[in-house]
Structure prediction request, 672 residues.
Amino acid sequence: MWEYTDTVQEHFLHPRNVGEIDNPSGTGDVGSLACGDALKLTLKIDDKGVITEAKFKTFGCASAIASSSVLTEMVVGMTVDEAAKVSNQDIANALGGLPKEKMHCSVMGREALEAAIADYRGLILPMAEGEVVCECFGVTDLEIIRAIRESNLRSVEEITNFTKAGGGCGKCEGALRNLLEQHAGIGVSRPVAKEKPRRMTALQKIKRIEEVLEREIRPGLRKDGGDIELIDVDGDFVSVSLRGACTSCSKSQTTIKEYVEKKLRELVLDSLIVEEEQS
Amino acid sequence: MSLAPDAVIYMDNNATTRVAPEVLAAMMPYFSELYGNPSSMHTFGGQVAEAVHTARCQVAALLGADPEEITFTSCGTESDSAAILSALRTYPEKRHVITTRVEHPAVKNLCENLTAITGHKYRVTRLKVDAEGMLDMAEYEEALREDTAIVSVMWANNETGVIYPVEEMARMARQRGILFHTDAVQAVGKIPINLRQLDIDMLALSGHKLHAPKGVGVLYIKRGTLFVPFMTGGHQEHGRRGGTENVASIVGLGKACELAAAKMDEENSRVKAMRDTLEEGLLTAIPKSLLNGHKTSRLPNTANISFEFVEGEAILLHMNQQRICASSGSACTSGSLEPSHVLRAMGVPFTAAHGSIRFSLSVYNSEEEIAFVLEKMPNIIDSLRKMSPFWKG
Prediction:
């Protein structure tokens, strides 16, 4: 018998906003039947970027259903930017807490919200880009690294509780331990480097990176009052420094990993790893 | 007769059972005035030893065994461990064990960790099962080798109720001089057993699965079988299991075995009929539901049914709202993130395994309760399916 709070039970037995919005502004579809839980979140967003309606359909246990239900209540009335900041801990807190083995249910809620927002913004979800580490549940290194950082995870068991990775055959335990060693307590994520598909000299790399930063990345950052500077390139490690408004932005890490790194991998070399130089 | 509004409808008897009132009554004196130690020389203790002996005879009668073949233990898990580890110590040169992929964790986890436990390297053959949960006897025959120390195969599966051909399997092992152990925790009291005619060397049973209390079990050791104790200590249980006897529970288990023998017919007629009504009713009323396990080679009290596209824990909690108690093989209830190893071994698709519910009845269930469950279940499944992104109903 799980120890569920009254709020979890209440949301499970009387879920709010069950269903699917017709012609939604954004849809987030995460999980699968095989994994044991899945969530389809649909959002209606008005022209001011405010979420006016949220509905869910969930396959899963009581805490998965309760997490989905409370999430739909939380985000209605938020702007998309505000909703993008909702963390899995916020969802768990709104439920009065979740058993630690069930934290992955709140993570699923957050992932569906992110996916729905990405869909609304016409972006591709960055988390799916990583390499699959846990084959049983299809969890990528990027998702695991993010959970380690955001929820301050300290053991393989905690990783399993939050992401389900390692909860199946257990073959990836070593890989999870490696990720922990690399990322626990470190502010910068360092995804496993892939095989280099092609070779470039250091000079070629620096030139191309500067070009891409100037052409593709700076214009977007400057619009928000920020900027980016290339500090160093060492092998595949690219050190950058965010300037202006970016330095005080809580999403700067996300900007670097999910935007800058993605662009550089796409346009320069797909083994590049971008790190922020702490100034 | 109708159901009381606050009645608990208990259909989780493979997990544990109600202590029969007659069992409790038989136990009570041993919690109060009859507190003597059965090993004592005085008559005051001696009368307690007599009660233990009576219980031993009652257990032996249910199993078709002799009283001296009965050793009381603390639980089914202890009996399983004692049996398997004794065989390995008796034949230290034999380094092969045969078991199945659908064993209870008591045997499964022991067999998976033999090297760590014994410090010796063991080869473990885990026999496969088919989609109905049945073993392939040809694979079994092939697996029996000269260096096989013991075969451990459950008599009946706790999750599906599937009954395994342990009589035949024990015979095949005996022909090759290999010890045979069976975890009969789910079978004892539900189906007739006569060990005198069989080649089973060791058998484990647990009191609380047949209306005795928790904390008492039995290891049957066939006369002539070499045995190395699991718990050494005093001379209790003919030196096979040290430790002062759990007298009250042993007396209760004896009484429970006597009752089980008397109710064997009811278990296989009335209980089976209720199970069949429940099973057929659910499979008919609820679309996309399917039976897990062999249709006929099965305990009379167990029905394991998968409701596709919904998740077991959510079903159980809704059933709990109606005070209906059952179990699930879903990931969320298995304590891990994967659904039951039994259903996976049978190749039940994950889509169905996550939504599996086990109903296990006893003689204490009534036809009214069956009707109540049949009335409530379709709505529970329907309400969850309406919430499921995979349900296109």
Q: What stands out?
A: Residues 202-223 of chain A form the longest helix (22 residues).
